[in-house]
Amino acid sequence: MLDVQNTGQLVNIVLREALSRSSIATEVSATYFDDGNTEPGGSLAWSGQSGRLTYLMSAGVQSGYRHSELDENSVNSDFSPNDTREIDQYFEIKNYTFNSNLSYAISDRDRLALNVLYNDGDPPQRVFRTITDFNAVTPVVTYEREAIPATSENWEVGADYEHSFLNGARFKALFIVNEKDSHITRERFISTALNTTESKNLFLDTTSRYRERIVRGSYTFNLAANQGLEIGVEGSQTIQDSGLRLGLPVPGVSSPDFGGLTPVAFPNAFSTVEEIRYEPFAIHNWQINSRMSLETSLIGEWSEIEQTGDVNKKRDFDYIKPKLDFRFDLNSALQFKATLEQVVSQLSFGDFSRATNERDDDQDTIAGNPTLEPEESLQAEFGLDYRLPNDGGALNARYFYYDHSNKIGRIDISPSPTDLQSTNGNIGSAAAYGLITNASIRLGFMGLPTALVTGSLTLQESEFHDDPFVPKEHGFVPFDRGGYRFGFRHDVPERNLNYGINYFARIDGNRTFFDIDNRFEFVIPSNLGLFIEIVGFAGLTYRLEANNLEDTEVCSERRRFNGRLLNGLLKEVENNCSKNGRSFALKIRGNF
């Protein structure tokens, strides 16, 4: 649903006469990484107004470069050494973006806006592995190299029209058309010595094309002086085309379309998934009195999902999604909020057909599930917001409880007891709950009125009740134990200077993925960053940033089992830790 909920106030400002003006904002940057690599970046934005036309156009290029160094140690079930892996992985991403926003006041009561977005962000990767196998009498060393060229492109065009009536009512219509195309080819080569002849042992090619067309119309009017109603309907068409090719060095006829290796056939590798969805809605806003307000909404969803290609299947869905949003000003500084909502998740159509397995390098692909259904949840939230006196800051706390049904997890689709396979599927009930607190405090009481301290603490828990692979309740991502943040910023106006620090860390535990024959647990690292910014030569703003100063590790453990995880017959334990290194960025901004 687009642009439906509005918890603030809407103010229409009509300019009968406006000056023509424009400005240009620029930024250039250079980021230095621990491995010695330096990546440039920059952006240019032009904005202004000419009569009834308001415009903003921007373009930029940013690097997503990352170099990860990973060390993995594996032991057998008797804790004897199995192997070690030293891995260097390079992500050489450059994102080129263009955005345009045009708004034209056709008349005092009519406005037309056009938005255009384009992004080209090819994300190639290179991977180098040194593997030492200790299971033989003498350790055996092999070398693996992966070349992973990739392309990624997306664009979006949107427009909206708004008409204001003399009685204060408003009609609004909009449409959005977008598309995202990606293509990734993964080829793996193996050798027994450096700088010698390699042999290819994997070809994995994936293509994806995702398209959306959305149309929405609404009419907003006043039922009474303190009540408003918005009614409308939204329709959309979503199409996902996906394809996957796997080639291996096995007996058979090789093919150039499979990297010169033998094609490996499997079901549901090529598919088109199309959803036609309609959502009528009604939103009622009621200002009960000067201190209390209530927003209620009711959304209906009717959709049809059809999959064609290797699998042909058509299904219909219908849902009713109510929501209540209550606000109560206990006094001028303290507000109570309460929300109750029925939520239906949007499915990832990529899960309908076979795809690459991003979690496990030992399993190249994972089967799709053409019978996947949306998750449903009843979500309740209660919060308090408190504003400190004299603009001294704000404190807020929010408790949430989400009751899930039809939760998605891993299900068993094994064709035989000796060929274990799993995929994403609907399992059953689950719950998540927690407390989120935030604080921002100005240090005026310490004689630093331009200094601000921010902090947050999240404590949360989750329970998966019916996981068939685990005979006990367990948590699920992203509702792990929680985490905390700390920030400090000090503005020094007399020196045109500001500086600050930001720190983020997670509370360990509850980040475990369970599969049919293994369990994978990982730890999210902390992150310490510093910045200093000054307005200097030629009126330009110079900003120096330092990120990941602790150079923390991302660690994980995977336990593999002989047969099903439920049987508990341990086969192997893999422990690995990786580092991305520190980075330092210099950014120079200017407005003209």
Describe what you observe in this structure.
By secondary structure, the protein is mainly beta. The chain is 0% helix and 68% strand. It has a 22-stranded antiparallel β-barrel. Strands 19-20 form a two-stranded antiparallel ribbon. Strand 25 (482-492) and strand 26 form a beta hairpin. Residues 3-18 have low confidence and may be disordered.
Structural class: mainly beta
As a percent range, the share of strand residues is: over 45%
Shape: globular
What number is the mean pLDDT? Answer: 92
Number of helical segments with 4 or more residues: 0
**Secondary structure: number of strands:** 33
| Helicity level | under 10%
Distance between the first and last residues' Cα: 39 Å
Task: Evaluate the radius of gyration.
Answer: 28 Å
Question: Regarding quaternary structure, how should these chains be classified?
Answer: single chain
Low-confidence stretches: 3-18
Largest sheet: 22 strands, antiparallel, barrel
Blueprint (SSEs and pairs):
Elements: E1 21-33, E2 38-50, E3 53-63, E4 66-76, E5 81-91, E6 94-107, E7 110-120, E8 125-133, E9 140-148, E10 150-164, E11 170-191, E12 199-224, E13 227-248, E14 262-263, E15 270-287, E16 292-309, E17 313-329, E18 334-344, E19 355-356, E20 365-366, E21 376-387, E22 393-412, E23 422-443, E24 448-464, E25 482-492, E26 497-506, E27 512-514, E28 518-523, E29 527-535, E30 541-547, E31 554-561, E32 570-579, E33 583-591
Antiparallel strand pairs: 1-2, 1-33, 2-3, 3-6, 4-5, 4-32, 5-8, 6-7, 7-10, 8-9, 9-11, 10-11, 11-12, 12-13, 13-14, 13-15, 15-16, 16-17, 17-18, 18-21, 19-20, 21-22, 22-23, 23-24, 24-25, 25-26, 26-29, 27-28, 28-31, 29-30, 30-33, 31-32
